[in-house]
Amino acid sequence: MTAAAQREARRTEALDSFRVRGMPHRRFEHWRYSDLRAVLDAGQVAQAGTAKWQIDKLPDGVELFDLATPEAPDWVMQKLGNVGNRRTMVEASLAFAEGGVALRVPAGRKIAEPIKLQIAGQGNLRWLIVLEKGASARIFEPHTADAGILRNVGVEISMAEGSELQHVRCAPFMPRSFAVELIAVEAAKDAKYRAHFANFGSRLSRTELHIVLGGEGAEAHLSGVTVLGHDGHSDVTTHIEHAAAKTSSTQLFKHVAGGKSRAVYQGKITVREGAVGSDSRQTARALLMSPRAEADLKPELIIFADDVKCAHGATVGDLDAESLFYLRSRGLPEKEARQLLINAFLGEAVAAIGDDALIETIWHDIEAALPRAMESVK
Amino acid sequence: MSAGSDTKDQVAALGEKYKYGFVTDIETDRAPKGLNTDIVRFISAKKTEPEWMLDWRLAAFRRWTEMREPNWARLRYAKIDYQDSYYYAAPKSTEKYESLDEVDPKLLETYAKLGIPISEQKQLAGVAVDAVFDSVSVATTFKERLNEAGVIFCPISEAIRDYPDLVRKYLGSVVPVTDNFFATLNSAVFSDGTFVYVPKGVRCPMELSTYFRINASQTGQFERTLIVADEGSYVSYLEGCTAPMRDENQLHAAVVELVALEGAEIKYSTVQNWYPGDENGKGGIYNFVTKRGDCRGARSKISWTQVETGSAITWKYPSCILRGDDTVGEFYSIAITNNFQQADTGTKMIHLGKNTRSRIISKGISAGHAQNTYRGLVSVHPKAINARNYTQCDSLLIGGKCGAHTVPYIESRNPTARLEHEATTSKIAEDQLFYCLQRGMTQEEAVALIVNGFCKEVLQQLPMEFAVEAQKLVGISLEGSVG
Asked: Which domain holds residue A273?
């Protein structure tokens, strides 16, 4: 079978699987806070078309393949549609996207310059990155605000032994769009995946990660900020599977919700039998700024091994009244004092990005979103 | 069996007679297998219940036939055939032993470890109790004191007859008939249970316990408990027993409803140690319980404390609806699973009123091949100004074949609310174990000591006499799990 025929066969499979399972809805336990079926039907997903991707400058040493070309090379064929489990919206993006991009970083290559992968327009899209043994790269994924009715992106990240990837995703405020991005990561021995997700909300926004730490010593470090106002919705759902010994993961997510917005975080950690010496930490904190805003947190631990360290913490509340009083007693107007405290609250998660230029970009977006988030609606 | 077909005939005849009213004197002690409206009528008739109660049961039954068994809990068990059980078995005069010598020595050994007095041991094992030690006389003195205080404490079937207005007002007001599959089943077929009413301003003079209720042994597999604490009253209720209960019934589906009116406080403690099945996971009780308390009046308080060590399957979420302003809900839990036991337990704290506070302390211990899940919800509604919650869920794993899971849901819709949740998972540290062994303790003593330390915060919440036995129970439940 030619590569093109194989791809067509896999697409048919994806289409069937999406048809059978349909749109995710409230009764799917992990979609309980984001009822996609209530607002969008399968036909609209099928007819949304294909979103656009753009890489202005590809760093030397990175191989690029346009998924719109049917005859794909082996490295694409091995991974495309095969990383992670086949969740219904992932299958939809595979079935309906007419294009997308695949990137490869060859063994041992360390790419210092970030690859800027911009996602624009309405529709389904796929992107894939393969990091070979010992390779390292950074990928910055900004989204433009023109998502139309739906943008559904399926991402596959395959990391071979000892590879490293830093992934920063930034999604703007899109009050009229439904935005879904499902990311699957497979990390082999000693691979390190670091990611940061900045979300500014849309009519329904779902960012879902499924990470399998499949090799000994593999690591995943996630952080994220969500700043919401108006009717914004943002759902960040993560599932990290510790499938091998001595794997570790950390998560730090901060949410600020004002107006009539809804911030959701669901984090599931599974430690498989035999994944001894695993270490997993997870923190989720939400600030509610308005009586009409809502925060839902669901940190979940599923543990099948005894020699592990797992902990999670979650808090929901308002700004600390004492800190606020302290700043006001120093002569700061209330609004400024609040802003200062919110910045401090978010700062920890933004700092985790570790790259000055990217940190500045994210702060820029946060500052644009804060006035919305600080609006209180009775 | 002829007795079985006899019963069938009688029930069939009963169905006919129902057109004309009740027939009360049925001399059978067991309804035939299966569940249908006739069985519901049979149970109701057996209890000589008024018509409203029968209608209530029938409505529940009709609803139940349309419901599906929930499957969201992290529990695996063979499908239950609801038509293959008996739904009513009158208190059989169980075989009485002449003396303790005839009782299974294994059972006696456990009693001894728990430190249960000889007279109590006899009663638990079903030995005919000597008149001097007769707990009935103890119970009678208790009854007098309760009467003086005006506290009603009786089987719910008696309450339906004697206090129909009270029962009608509160029954099903916390756990609606249609609440969930198991609660609805219970509403249709509950055989007996307990009713407690504490009048205004009364502090119940003693800890109430089903153990001392005369016909405690009659309560069947579908227990129904209703406790109403009127304004400003206080009651502490103990359920269950640390002693292992030999029970033939596979399926238990109890419902417990608590109502706390203005300024009232209810403290509900449970120690559950039903048959967990053998080392290979064969047999054991399936325990599907719906427990819910309603802090209906301002400044009321409901506190749940549970020590769950028995049952093959535990499905239980004692919850608090914090409806009144300034109300308090508490949940303290120890769940121990060993061998092939599975427990999916936790709580719900629903904050509706202003300044409501809740506290959740859950300790899960998993050993052998067991699976232990904490599943909880803390929900703050938009009007619950200044609501406060603190949750702590700790899991302890003993051995590499078991599982410990934590599934908390935290939902806030009020910016003035403060919710905090923490969870940790750990194992018994080698250095702690080594230290104890080096001081001359056996492995099992050391594990019991460490686990008791782990559970201390919850054990402290139990009434004193219970706490002592519960501590020993923790050790016994984990026997054979290490080494």
From this structure: 3-373
